[in-house]
Structures are given as structure tokens and as C-alpha cells.
Please model this.
Amino acid sequence: MTPKDMLLALAIIFAWGFNFVVIKWGLDELTPMMLGGLRFLIIAVVGSFFFSRPKTPLKWVAGYALTLSFGQFAFLFTAMEFGMPAGMASLVLQSQAIFTLFFAALFLKEYIRPYQLLAIGIAASGLAVIGVNGEDTTMTILGFALTLAAASTWALANIATKIIIRKGYDANVNLIVWSCWIPPIPFFICAYFVDGSEVMWSNIIHIGWKTMATLVYLSLIATIGGYGLWSYLMSRYSAGTVAPLTLGVPAVGLTTSAFILNEQISQAQWTGIMLVLVGLIMNTLGGRWLLNKKSS
Model:
């Protein structure tokens, strides 16, 4: 990568890692469903002026939107509302890589390689350590379980993405932006039945500068800006060069959450964190290592 593109990559990693702290701030003022609905409504309204409408059929756009945007963030925002620390969420959410492997084997009949099975085992053991050692921290079992649910729906979105690409359509930032017209509908419906109309209206009329800044960051910086720059890097470099950079996201999330939100992580959970990171790195880079070994 050129120095300029490396700086762009670092900016994306920081934006996505710090994103979890911002979500926590947003949940101080808004309910999870209202935060999700308003976030994606802003993305759709603003992004549609800058990105062209994709040619992907509506049924695939809907499937993509309901898994990636609604399912993932409905579970994630609720998890963080019910006791999932921001930093830990940034790490546990990366378990989507594990779920993606299983779903790809189940729905797409893709082969899971031996090194991937080993990587899954290591990462899963790390998640187990994190899950059973939350008594000395603010993490709750419910928050942890909901974050795993968020990761699983993200994985389903990855499967939808693969199917869209196989059918000859683009799965880029244009799809992300235009698919955001769909999630506000289920978010606001859930808000009506879960929070009630009075709470919904109160969330809207009492939006302050802090909440507005949170929504701007989540929608314009983390989503439109982040994915726009990510698409730019993916167009210039191989996926094997760009994709591993996302491993920096939980590092930023854990660090910024510790410094800004003063979140505490037990020693046992740090062990689990390291196991998860080792598993993710092995899953991401293991194939390249084997290819290099064969070629040498």
C-alpha cells in the first residue's frame, strides 16, 4: 500500500473501532430500536444523493438489509443496552467469521479447510472463556448472548452477499446505502411495540447536540465514509491485503473503551481475547501462509 492509502486504512480501522464507544453514548439518549432506525434513515436519505441505485433485485436487497443492518444492529444495540461492554462487543462481534464458515458450508456447500477448523476451535474456546468469566466485570450473559446473535446475523448477511455476487450483481457501498431504506421500517415497528409511542416521540423531540453528533458519526462517518473508503481500497488492492486490516478494529474498540468508558476486563477474559484474536488471525492469514509454503 502507498503511505496515503495506509493512512486511509488506519482511519477506517479507528472509525470502526471507536464506533462502539459512540454507540454507547447514543444509547444514553435513545432506545436501541430508535437509535437503529434513525441511524439507517440518515444513511438512506443522505447517501442516496451520492451513490447510484444498485441493479440488485429487491428480494436480495431486502434479505441483505434485514440481516446486515436490521438483524445485526438490533441485536448489538440491545446487547449493549443490557450489559455488553463496548470494547468486548467490538471483539465478540468478530465471531461472525466463525459463523460465516459454518453457514457457507451449510447453505453454499463450501469446504471448510483443516486450518479453518483449528482456527474455529481456538476462537470458540476464547469466546467460551470470555462468556464464563464475566462475574468480575460489567458484562452480562444476556449481553454476551445477544452479541453472538448479532454476529450470526452478520454472517447470514455475508452469505447473502456471496449469493448476490454469484448472481452477477455488485455488492458494494451502493448496495449498503440503498438497502438502508429498508431497516428503519422494522426498527420503528419494534420501537412502537417495545418502547411505546410516547417513548418514541420523546426520543425524537428531545434529541440534543450529543445525540445528533452520535447519529452523524454512526451514519456518515462510520458507515458512508468508512465503507466508501473501504470500497476504494478493495478496488486498488487484493482482498488478502485489505481484509486482514479489520483485525485492528477490536484492538481500537478495546483500547478506546478502556480509556474513555473505563471498562474493566478480567485477567481470564484477556486470555479469552487473545485466543479469539489468534483464531481470527489464523482464519484470515492461514490460507496465504499455506500457499506461500507450497510455492516455496
Q: What stands out?
A: The radius of gyration is 19 Å. Residues 3-295 form one domain.
